[in-house]
Design goal:
The chain is mainly β. The protein has 2 domains: 129 residues, no CATH class; 90 residues. 0% of the residues lie in helices and 56% in strands. It is built from no helices and 19 strands. Strands 7, 8, 9, 10 and 11 form a 5-stranded antiparallel β-sheet that branches. A 4-stranded antiparallel β-sheet has the order 1-6-5-4, with no helix packed on it. Strands 12-13-14-15 form a 4-stranded antiparallel β-sheet, with no helix packed on it. Strand 10 and strand 11 form a beta hairpin.
């Protein structure tokens, strides 16, 4: 699906109800990708402007999830005409059963010599996490530059996944066992792992900083903390 115009900005409303509001043509590429999510995957569309055109340049879908339950991403890296973004998605019904599987995907956008933008999203690698999954669990995830922390509402430990190697280890665990209640990261890269009666706090390097009773609350970057 291709929508683009050489001179005029426009607004495009999809059948899904997603609205792309497009910026005026810029000397540099100003592109963005928006998403719609479902339990079995997500669809995407890339819109914006390049040096010679503006509009929506293509769309696609990533499917095959048993139950997509959480998704997060790293920042874009690259230039005005080429960028890469790493995406991490949790499936609580992975491998055709109740496994929690982390999908590592990449989103690449490039602008060719005609000013047309090409977007490719690739499911690069899948890692099974040592967590309790299922069709109705709540999933939690946050990351910093060093690690991804993940868990579910029936997990009694967290899974910590290193970047970029994606090696996996279990972290924490109280006696008697306590179910996880949430994970959040702040702007400094500290990650709070909260359980029903205690917490662990990971630092920007992924190592443990503190643990104790009650909960450790941090304010996420860009997203509000809702008490």
């Amino acid at each position: 699906m291709v929508f683009y115009t050489k001179r005029y900005a426009l607004a495009l409303t999809l059948a899904t109800g997603l609205v792309c509001s497009l910026a005026p043509v810029q000397a540099r590429a100003q592109l963005y990708t928006t998403y719609n999510f479902s339990p079995t995957g997500f669809s995407w569309i890339t819109c914006g402007s390049t040096s010679s055109s503006d509009g929506c340049y293509g769309s696609g879908a990533v499917t095959g999830f048993g139950r997509l339950c959480a998704i997060l991403s790293d920042a874009n890296v690259g230039s005005s005409t080429s960028s890469l973004q790493r995406i991490y998605a949790l499936d609580s019904e992975g491998n055709g059963k109740h496994d929690v599987v982390l999908h590592y995907l990449t989103r690449e956008i490039s602008v060719d010599s005609t000013g047309y933008a090409h977007t490719t999203i690739t499911d690069v690698k899948r890692v099974t996490l040592p967590l309790a999954g299922g069709p109705h669990v709540a999933c939690y995830a946050a990351d910093n530059n060093a690690v991804i922390a993940a868990g579910t509402s029936t997990s009694t430990t967290a899974a910590v996944v290193t970047k970029p190697a994606l090696t996996v280890s279990s972290y924490g665990g109280f006696s008697p066992p306590e179910a996880m209640t949430g994970i959040a990261a702040d702007a400094s890269g500290n990650i709070a792992l909260n359980f029903s009666g205690g917490f662990y706090l990971l630092g920007p390097s992924g190592g443990g900083l503190e643990d104790g009773g009650g909960n450790a609350l941090v304010i996420p970057l860009h997203n509000a903390y809702i008490p």
